[in-house]
């Protein structure tokens, strides 16, 4: 049996776990925390020129102050469509239009809404943990195949410990990211 067939691709497992973390960070960035953020508009799509288009492709999104997001729409004809898309997005924000500039004042979150958002953040974190564990499971499957192909018990144990250490590291990162996000949401 060739030596490289017995090795486990730890770089691939790491890359896939990094992907789970990147996905979690993206989902966290779309959660509203009572503080203005340009990324809170990422999920909002505008019907522009016959195709759903992200807001940042029809105008410039800025955060001039902690409780305000502004969108400078490039095409005057698109202003009403952008305004409508924001109102229908479920963000709970009422846009105010001034020519081609749309201002989005971010209201304070009440206690109940903050608790709901922390639960949503916890769900996102659990999805990331499941993704990391699925990558771990794939690594363990590779390990079983390598053992069946003639990998020694000692090498098998070393690789098993490597994969488990990697998994523990990423689960700890998910937990830390969740704790940080929940503190940010609950901050008044």
UniProtKB/TrEMBL annotation:
The lineage of its organism: Bacteria, Pseudomonadati, Pseudomonadota, Alphaproteobacteria, Rhodobacterales. One of its GO terms (cellular component) is cytosol. Residues 24-186 form the Ribosome recycling factor domain. It is found in: Cytoplasm. GO terms for molecular function: ribosomal large subunit binding. HAMAP family: RRF. Belongs to the RRF family. The keyword Cytoplasm applies. One of its GO terms (biological process) is cytoplasmic translational termination. Its main location: cytoplasm. Responsible for the release of ribosomes from messenger RNA at the termination of protein biosynthesis. May increase the efficiency of translation by recycling ribosomes from one round of translation to another. Keywords: Cytoplasm, Protein biosynthesis. It comes from Rhodovulum kholense. The keyword Protein biosynthesis applies. PANTHER family: MITOCHONDRIAL RIBOSOME RECYCLING FACTOR PSEUDO 1, RIBOSOME RECYCLING FACTOR. The gene is frr. This is Ribosome-recycling factor. Pfam families: RRF.
């Amino acid at each position: 049996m060739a030596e490289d067939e017995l090795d486990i691709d730890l770089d691939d497992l790491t890359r896939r776990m990094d992907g789970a973390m990147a996905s979690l960070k993206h989902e966290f960035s779309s959660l509203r925390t009572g503080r203005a953020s340009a990324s809170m508009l990422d999920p909002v799509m505008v019907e522009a020129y016959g195709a759903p288009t992200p807001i940042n492709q029809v105008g410039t999104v800025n955060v001039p102050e902690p409780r305000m997001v502004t969108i400078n729409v490039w095409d005057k004809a698109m202003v009403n469509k952008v305004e409508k898309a924001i109102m229908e997005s479920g963000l709970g924000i009422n846009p105010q239009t001034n020519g081609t500039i749309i201002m989005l004042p971010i209201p304070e979150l009440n206690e109940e809404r903050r608790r709901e958002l922390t639960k949503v953040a916890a769900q996102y974190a659990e999805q990331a943990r499941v993704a990391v564990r699925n990558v771990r499971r794939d690594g363990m499957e590779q390990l079983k195949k390598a053992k069946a192909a003639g990998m020694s018990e000692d090498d098998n144990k070393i690789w098993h410990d490597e994969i488990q250490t990697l998994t523990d590291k990423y689960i700890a990162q998910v937990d830390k990211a969740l704790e940080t996000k929940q503190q940010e949401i609950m901050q008044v």
